[in-house]
Amino acid sequence: MLDKINKVKREHIIKNGDESSPFAISLIDICKSFGPVQANDAISLDVTRGTIHGIIGENGAGKSTLMSIIYGFYKPDSGMIKVAGTPVSFKQPSDAISLGIGMVHQHFMLVPNFTALENIILGSEGKKGLKSGLYAARKKLKELSQTYGLEVDLDSITEDLPVGIQQRIEILKALYRGAKVLILDEPTGVLTPQETERLFEILNALKSEGVTILLITHKLHEVMAITDVVSVMRQGKLVAHTKTKETNSEWLAEQMVGRSVLVNIQYPKGNPKHIALSAEKVSVTDKRGFDSLKNVSFDLHAGEILGIAGISGNGQSELLSVLSGIIQPAAGQFKIAEELFDATHHADPQKVRQLGVAHVPEDRHAEGLILQFQAFESAILGYEKSPNLGVKLLTDPNINRTYCAQLMDSFDVRPQNPTLLSSQFSGGNQQKLILAREISSMPKVLLVGQPTRGVDIGAIEFIHNTLISMRDSGCAIIVVSVELEEILSLSDRIMVMNAGEVVGTVNKQDATKPMLGKMMAGMTLNVAEKGV
Amino acid sequence: MADFWFQFLLALDSSIRVATPLILGAMAGIFSERSGIIDISLEGKMLMAAFVAAAVAYGTGSPWLGAIAAIIVSIIASLIHGFACIIHRGNQVISGLAINILASGLTVIIGIALFRQGGQTPTLPKSARFNSIELPFAQYFADNIPILGVVYKELISGHNILVWLALASVGITYYILFKTTFGLRLRAVGEKPEALDSAGISVSKMRFQAIIIAGILCGLAGVYLSTATGAGFVKEMTAGKGYIALAAMIFGKWRPVPALFACLMFGFLEAVAARVQGAEFPIIGEISSDLLLALPYVLTVVLLAGFIGGVSPPRAIGQPYIKER
Q1: Whole-angstrom distance, CA of residue A429 vs CA of residue A459
Q2: Does A21 share its domain with A62?
Q3: Residue that finishes a domain, picked among A410, A442, A474
Q4: For chain A, first and last CA: distance in Å?
Q5: Are A282 and A469 in contact (CB under 8 A)?
């Protein structure tokens, strides 16, 4: 009975909308956690009908989780969703689809060897059989393409089409199902600038036809260019909500990264000496053919910490990977200890390590240690043949355990048990173990990615002090961090990156948070300085 | 010369009979693997079905009841496979292997317990089997129409109903796979299950439906072995036919019609091998029949190694579907 009432109500909503509510979607106190991670924390949000609503935040801020909840892919732990003013509860995506909510996923949900047409009707083929379903769809899609300028050759095989067109198929797929609310998850991540422009035209056309658009992105200029309203998410919370006209990109940048101040110690400045590492016009091209790193040049001196600031995903990760020999540059060169590497003379992690470079990776679970290994095994990864452990054909677990116990003692890793699985340590202790492993090789150059991500306050202080004392003993250090406070506190010089390029480099004493915020949004140093 | 042609005709005729369980098995494999579930348990399901068909047909005297029971048991085996690898995301190869081992042991143990004949079922009387159907006018045509009449009598007439069912299953599989909504979704779930899930259709439900169909087809293959060509169950009577069906399916690139021809080719080589055993040929001398029998497998390996065109299995095959982000 209840189902029947709901169904009638739903049909009413789809046909007419609830005119009394100006909001296409309202979220009230949505919470969602995955194990210990609180992905969404009491999110309340109203999305006005017929607007383009931007939701921005860094990777892992909880944007995608929130959208998956609106789309019925996840069930919230608590909270309520209203569609056009009517409370709803989604068990699966089809419930959301039937209420006119469509989603264009970041990774397209298209069957590669299907035609565009087959992909569009998949799951909504109609009751009259496939043949008549395809026929009816072709007719309806022709109208849709014309209304919104979404030209797609319906009979081409999806995987043969450029990504921009594949994305149009995704949009058509949602519209074909009668979407009145369209969620786009990082839609421009895979697009060329021209395709992006074209997408924005389409989005504006959709808006003028009354479609409500939720745009998830971490690119500020896109938010400024196309949205009407913008909400900022940070660490699972909604931290700001404003009309786009009334804000600017630097303020938004600060909101995105400006985490609560955990540590704000001003360390004394270092004493830079000779150049330990230099990069000249290093560029990296990713698999999709986009330049994730463009003409990056800098020098790194022994005895200094070079902080690299930027909103995550602007080339910092690629820079660390190139310098540590994990990926190869497409152009340009870099020099470590007088050895030159370029697109033809490749570096590899082993070679680079032998030249005295140590690397604390950004993602410690994926690259830093092996979670299913015991601590003493994780503690020697990459250094299995170091003289500390005795160079032998077979590794000796006893020696390794003793060695690990020493590391744990000097780096205060708790619990001090070398045979515990790596996964059983807290984030901070895992990080200290990795740091211990890398530093004990007495590196001349230390590359550190996100030194304190997911690390408790006590460990942060310890890690920072360790990095400073390494610097003072003459090590050249690069710290990549999305935490501005951390960069400002540790670095001697700060290099800001945006869209794979170096925006500018400032000395610590000249740097201010608002200035860095503007540079992270892509403004050059000169412009940023004038504004201060 | 006339004798050669007659022999050739008989070889073709017996290829069809040898190929029948392969065709049913290959179609079963197509349904299962197109949905993303690796099915090496074709062998085990056929074996279980063969045993149950013979046992029930012997007990009741009706081949039809035997067939129904066999299909039910084969579906149950499919569901066990699905329970392990769809619901619990287990390894599909291991799960299939387990079913094969289970089938090989259970059929013999239950067979000994029931019939005390060393794992065999008693020989089935004609009335408890699926017998050949002589098409009308077979003898008349053979006597009065040259060539075609003989072809009609020897090649087309004289097959049992399961042979016809196997051939029909190819057309039906093709139609379902490429002309129906169900088929569209089935192909999607084996290529990109996320696409189906995000369209609001249950991936698990689709995969279960696919393996149930596979169960039915494997059941028929088993029925054919013990109550149509055979006159009872003999232990390990599938003798690798499930794996050959799998190879034929791969050789046919997961498509029904090419898979049918692969099955017929495998069947033909087997039929020829049986006939040339010991025969002397001019110039080449005696052909080893083992060599002929090995040919299909060699061809399959060559195909898989990529020497004959590209083989692209369903992209999501073997991967349990885990809903994420």
Answers
A1: 7
A2: yes
A3: A442
A4: 64
A5: no
Whether A487 has its CB under 8 Å from any CB of chain B: the answer is: no
Contacts of B311 (CB under 8 A, 6+ apart): B250, B253, B303, B304
pTM over 0.90: no
> What whole-number distance in Å separates Cα of residue A414 and Cα of residue A420?
11
How many residues are recorded in chain B? 325
**Do residues A433 and A452 share a domain?**
no
Query: Nearest by CB to B201, which of A113, A119, A123?
Result: A123
Q: What does the pLDDT look like over B41-79, one tens digit per residue?
A: 999 999 999 999 999 999 999 999 999 999 999 999 999
Number of domains in chain A: 3
Match 């020497």 to its residue by tokens. Answer: B307
Distance CA A149, CA A169 (A): 12
Tokens of B229: 């060509």
Backbone angles phi, psi at B308, to 5 degrees: -110, 90
Q: Which residues pair with A242 in a beta bridge?
A: A230
Classified as helix, coil or strand, A302 is coil
Whether residues A345 and A374 fall in one domain: no
Task: Give the domain range for residue A513.
Answer: 262-356+444-532
Give the chain A residue nearest B185 (alpha carbons). A122
ipTM confidence: 0.86
A178 near B CB under 8 A: no
Same structural domain, A177 and A307: no
Residues of B with CB under 8 A from a CB of A: 179-181, 183-185, 187-188, 191-192, 194-202, 312, 315, 323, 325
Q: Please check whether residues A11 and A139 belong to one and the same domain.
A: yes
CA-based nearest residue to A443, from A273, A324, A309: A324
Q: Tokens standing for B113? A: 């317990």
Antiparallel, parallel or unpaired: β A305-309 and A357-360: unpaired
Question: Which two three-digit tokens encode residue A290?
Answer: 């986009």
Could you tell me the pLDDT band of residue B216, with boundaries at 50, 70 and 90?
A: very high
Is residue A85 situated within a structural domain?
A: yes
> How close, in Å, is residue A201 to chain B by CA atoms?
26
Question: Cβ(B107)–Cβ(B119) under 8 Å?
Answer: yes
Boundaries of every domain in chain B: 10-304
Residue B324 Cα, gap to closest chain A Cα (Å)? 9
Return d(Cα B233, Cα B226) in angstroms, integer. Answer: 5
Class of domain B10-304: mainly alpha
How many whole angstroms separate alpha carbon B242 and alpha carbon B29? 9
Nearest CB among A73, A110, A131 relative to B195 is that of: A110
Interface test with B, best of A65, A120, A121, A130 (most B CBs within 10 A): A130
Same domain, A436 and A497: no
Beta bridge mates, B228 = none
- pLDDT mean across residues, chain A: 86
Burial (CB count <10 Å: 0-12, 13-18, 19+), residue A453: middle
* Minimal-distance CA residue of chain A relative to B188: A111
- A381 in a domain, yes or no? yes
Classify A423 in phi/psi space as left (phi over 0), alpha (psi -120 to 50) or beta: alpha
- Are residue A180 and residue A200 in the same domain, yes or no? yes
With beta carbons less than 8 A apart as the criterion, state whether A72 and B201 touch: no
Higher pLDDT, A48 or A426: A48
